[in-house]
Amino acid sequence: MRTIAESNQRAKDMCANGYRYLYGGKGQDYTTGLVNSLHSMYPSHVPLEEALKDADKGYKAIDCSGFLCDVLGIGNMGSAQIRSTAVKRLSVSKANAREGMAIWKSGHVAYVGEGLKIYEASSTKTDMRVSSWEERAGAFTELLIVKGSALAESDDPAKGANPYPIPTRTIKYVAGNTMKGDDVRWVQLELVEAGYNIEIDGSFGPASNEALLAFQASCKISVDGKCGPDTRQHLIANGPVGMAVVNPYPMPTRTIYYVPGGTMKGDDVRWVQFALVQSGASIEIDGSFGPASNKALLAYQEANGLEVDGRCGPATRQSLQDNSVATSQTYTVQGGDTLWGIAESLLGNGSRYGEIMALSGISSTDIVVGQVLTVPAA
Q1: Which of 94, 219, 319, 354 is most buried (CB neighbours < 10 A)?
Q2: Distances in Å between the alpha carbon of 308 and those of 26, 295, 300, 318, 337?
């Protein structure tokens, strides 16, 4: 975290020297390869011809949320997460404004600096921009005290607790067969807290789908319109760096164990698998307790001084829950990265790449520059 004086100076320096706007940029070298990669991921946000004008000229690439997080000295979040986790939200007025605040509108965020000037990574057309309050403030809808910033007196977000049950299924838009329920309301409320104007009606229709796609794009995660474990974590918005990974599945109320020829299945099995992955196992979180899950459970029980019986009953569940407080980290894929290389660098063992895949909710080993992966504690 930077002090307000340090943030003010950082905003001035970044707007004056060496940075150019690029959607998905978080301080990487602004190269043709990076532009092509981000364009393939976000074609509507990264217009190729416009974005290439600053490539390979020695600049650093930055987008609006990357700029704000750098200026404040906090971990990277998308603009929607910044709004969702804000400690305080205020209407836009000069009376409410203070140096060190963020100023926000849906899809964009900027920094309020010295003299209430507004500093921002604006667009590929205007790049880095500094404006007077009178010139620019009217374009925004809220002032934010950002969690983790110098102005934040606590880390308690302005949003209240979500009263609806967190989904244990993947929520998505299905034309002609709309998904409904209180778990859909959970998703909708989190999207509303992130700044999207939709109804919390428990019916996941086109408007909810559009908001979910926009949120995923803001967070630079897979824009697939599916609210699975990874998207749920970003909606919960514990923060993308060093965040505690909350197990999104229901804790078992039965004993989970391997039954040859009669495999136990369900979301409570996924809870066990997810907890085992957090503890270092390299298994699929597929809801089917087969030989690989059994082997991982036996290894966990032995490593943690439990009865090695392959049965996830009360004692093993409690141990898994206690160990789940171990934090994870996120990693943004750079040019030349492979999953094996990332696992070897961050976890000390390349063969642990499967854990990264499981926590990141991906099924392919193909990764692209700018993709955000969740990596377990080493």
Answers
A1: 219
A2: 46, 11, 9, 15, 38
Tally the C-alpha atoms within 13 A of residue 206's C-alpha that lie toward its C-beta.
Answer: 2
Cβ neighbors of 196 (< 8 A, separation 6 or more) are 80, 106, 211, 214, 215
Question: What would the pLDDT profile of 339-362 be if each residue is shown by its tens digit?
Answer: 888 888 877 777 777 777 766 667
Angle between helix 267-278 and 314-323 (nearest 10):
50
Rounded to the nearest 10 degrees, the angle between the axes of helix 353-360 and helix 267-278 is: 140
Residue 241 pLDDT grade (very low, low, confident, very high; cuts 50, 70, 90): very low
Question: Within 10 A of 180 (CB to CB), how many other CB atoms are there?
Answer: 13
User: Which pTM was predicted?
Assistant: 0.54
For the chain, domains (ranges, CATH) are: 4-145 (3.90.1720.10), 171-236 (1.10.101.10), 256-323 (1.10.101.10), 329-375 (3.10.350.10)
Find where tokens 């990277």 sit: 76
What tokens were used for 123?
A: 């667009």
Torsion of CA 31, 35, 40, 45, to 10 degrees: 160
d(C-alpha 312, C-alpha 254), whole Å = 8
| Residue among 194, 187, 258 at smallest CA distance from 229 | 187
The DSSP secondary-structure symbol of 254 reads S
- Give CA–CA dist 366/339, Å, rounded: 8
DSSP at 166? P
Tell how strand 60-62 and strand 19-21 pair up.
Answer: parallel
Three-class SS of 98-162: CCCCEEEECCEEEEECHHHCEEEEEECCCEEEEECHHHHHHHCCEEEECCCCCCCCCCCCCCCCC
Are 355 and 347 in contact by the 8 Å Cβ rule? The answer is yes
> Which position has the token pair 């603009």?
79
